[in-house]
């Protein structure tokens, strides 16, 4: 089985993924048993397109690569324009599935209804949105939810570390955050900012690797993104506990890492999935392997029965 946690550190996604199915002969990350059982199935041909969350992308990146070994005649393209950007394409009918790090919004659901697109929500895994600082930062170990709000809400002031604790350096805080099209931004905005404006000085990007690199390069930097991106870069970043709780698979699954634990989704276009053999086959492979891949890249898998329910919901689309 490929070590996806380490593979992510060097290949953790640019602006898009295009892992076509052109001939990987390596044993899949789901093991030879999965590959052997799949080899008995009919060969599927076609192309499948998805888009959406950069947080969900590490799961899909692994799944797409392993699927290429099972169905080499299917080309799967997965963009990472953020949850909101992905839903825009989904509403336009451009994609068969849309990855999301937050539930679909009412206005997005209404737009899909207006467009005549029926969809199904599939839960893939759980994430703990991780607040991180530069490894040279030796003063921040823990922040409260109120500290986070004080830091990140725009109030017209220049934010200094000493504003949170007078014993901390009188240095300006440098902020990195997901872009406004990101579901991670939406989630942080809801549970931390409480719909107030984010600090204007923040560097925003839908590409989590840009955030990682920015924080790595500045001792006064702070940022947040999905847990898998922290795990992939934990040797060069320091995670901050929130109200004394560190994000771990255990605290994320239990809900103790609150309020920054959250579910990760993919949304399927019912008609495309039902009518396109390649789209259906890929979605089935995704649900069958999401738990193992989520754990491999640093997220928290669902209970087995939750994946079984997802597969039952998928089969109902036929």
From TrEMBL:
Q: Which InterPro entries match?
A: PBP_domain (IPR024370), Phos-bd (IPR011862), Phosphate_ABC_transporter (IPR050811)
Q: Where in the cell is it found?
A: Cell membrane
Q: Which cellular component, as a GO term, is one annotated location?
A: plasma membrane
- From which residue to which does the signal peptide run? 1-21
PROSITE patterns given for it? Answer: PROKAR_LIPOPROTEIN
Write out the entry's keywords from A to Z.
Cell membrane, Lipoprotein, Membrane, Palmitate, Phosphate transport, Signal, Transport
Q: What family classification does the UniProt entry report for this protein?
A: Belongs to the PstS family.
Q: How does it assemble?
A: The complex is composed of two ATP-binding proteins (PstB), two transmembrane proteins (PstC and PstA) and a solute-binding protein (PstS).
Instruction: State what this protein does.
Output: Part of the ABC transporter complex PstSACB involved in phosphate import. Involved in the system for phosphate transport across the cytoplasmic membrane.
Which protein, by its recorded name, is this?
Phosphate-binding protein
* Protein source organism: Planococcus rifietoensis
